[in-house]
Prior knowledge:
The complex is a heterodimer of chains A (218) and B (212).
Chain A: H1 2-11, H2 20-28, H3 33-43, H4 46-61, H5 66-85, H6 99-116, H7 139-157, H8 161-172, H9 177-184, H10 188-206, H11 210-217
Helix pairs in contact in A: 4-5, 4-6, 5-6, 7-10, 7-11, 9-10
Chain B: H1 3-32, H2 44-58, H3 66-86, E1 100-105, E2 109-110, E3 117-119, E4 125-130, E5 139-145, E6 151-154, E7 158-161, E8 164-169, E9 178-187, E10 201-209
Parallel strand pairs in B: 3-10
Antiparallel strand pairs in B: 1-4, 2-3, 4-8, 5-6, 5-9, 7-8, 9-10
Amino acid sequence: MASRSSTHAEVASNDLGWTPGSLDEVFSDGGGSGLDGLARALLGVLPSLAARELLPWSGYYRRSPAALCEDVVQDVMLKLFAERGRVLRAWNTERGLSLRGFLRRVVRYHVLQMFRSSVKNPWRDLPVEGHADATGDDSDALLHQLWLWEVRDLLLADENERGRALYVGLFVEHCSAEELGERHEMSRDAVYQWRARFKRRASRLLSDTPSQRTQEGT
Amino acid sequence: MNRTGHEDQVEDALARMAALDVQQAAIEQAEADGASVEVPEFSAATLDAIVAASVQAAEPRPQPSRAWLWSGAAVAALAAAMLLWWLRPTPPVAPLGTPELVLGGTARTLGDEPPVRAYGPGDSLALHLRFAEAPGPIAAHLVALDAKGESQTLSLPWVDHDDGGRFEGTIAELLMPGRWTLRVYFGRPQACAPETVEGCRPLETQVDVLAP
């Protein structure tokens, strides 16, 4: 994959001086100053990542994100460090993601889980009857979602500019095939064919189970 | 696993993948709208407390007693059930087209240019989200914004229709007199959760609310 090598060069400065190997060492040593130093290094970037993830939500609810930012950072740190850093050690540079990018995804998952839940959403004033909560917020669910986002990266890495635009149109903006066909000068059938091909590729990649992936990363 | 079940799982996985991009788009839209990231300063005491809690969380847990193992197994089974529920496949649905928002009801007056419908106490409002083709399952919620952009959620009943659906009710009892923007957030039920914007698309119109 041609884009992967440039990605590696680009992410080197975003690894905060850590490698998967050095993370393993710190957690294997059983604590002490290494863990303390790691925690302080992560706290150097997590507040800004959390503040940015909260940006659209604070705009929607018209609330200041300052106090919530602190809670998000603390919750994310606990998730990263729990069970000898199980989640944090799932970061693997061979998957083309910098440590900063990995942390952003963990924070994003946490924020999305929080605002999708009628119980955890701190800015929801009114209870919503009949709204089921998304409760799968343990490490397994988080690692599964991180793996799904890796699959997304792999899928998009092999797409050209139009393919990425079709992905956004279909799965992010939920546009109709007609709209996308007009936008990209394609027939409706061609959009459907692209979608079917993309789903087949997704199906193949998804057959590589998340449990195997998780074990590789720990 | 039968083929249909597998396809459902792929659809569900694709929706979960897209959550990464939906949130990214929301952040970029907020920034484009002029919002800026404010990173709060954490006090030294707060930082120390988070570091201490994190280091403690990293420690391996003590070996549980036999009695705790049974309760632990029950908790694990419950967690697995919850995870399965969360990962449950959702039926595949076609992408949503672009609807139009049509105001109806017993509007009292029409204003000058541009014409704005006005609703007084007792006037019924119907706000129809109308698609060109039957859209299938959709979720929608309604927010009213005043002239300053202050928003409030309107809990009007939603009625499903073949071509979409509509909010029905009276608004003069819920909103102060004046001009309001009614903004409908809509999307697929699995993507557009109540009272959230992430995963939803907005469409809006304006109304005047009359004093008694």
